[in-house]
What does this fold into?
Amino acid sequence: MATQQRVERIREAIKQEASDIIRQMKDPRIGFVTVTDVEVSRDLRHVKIFVSVLGDEEARQTSLDSLEGATGYIRTEIGQRVRLRHTPEIAFRWDGSLEQGARISKILADLKLDGENHVDTEGEDE
It folds into this structure.
């Protein structure tokens, strides 16, 4: 088992390299993908790469399917760039936190705008 500090270093290295590898891929099916987080198992044998995809549901699914299809290539590249005894198995997961955050920000901005409009209309009645 690796120490927590080593797991964290490897997690950051894999996150950086996976992001770079995906950005350099020439597959047109892979849209604007952002690596948001990486989870590494304590034994360093399994990695979950969380990604966010700009676009609609179809773009997200197409990009995820394409990434799953390119897992072997991405795993090989990570194995060459991050020096480990065993190259970990990779799984891609969709991370909706960025979209959810954007949606919440929009709702809050709309509420603020509605609140300002409400205050303006109250002042006109007096």
About this structure: Residues 96-126 form one domain. DSSP finds four helices and three strands in the chain. Helices lie at 4-24, 57-69, 71-81, 97-125. The radius of gyration is 21 Å.
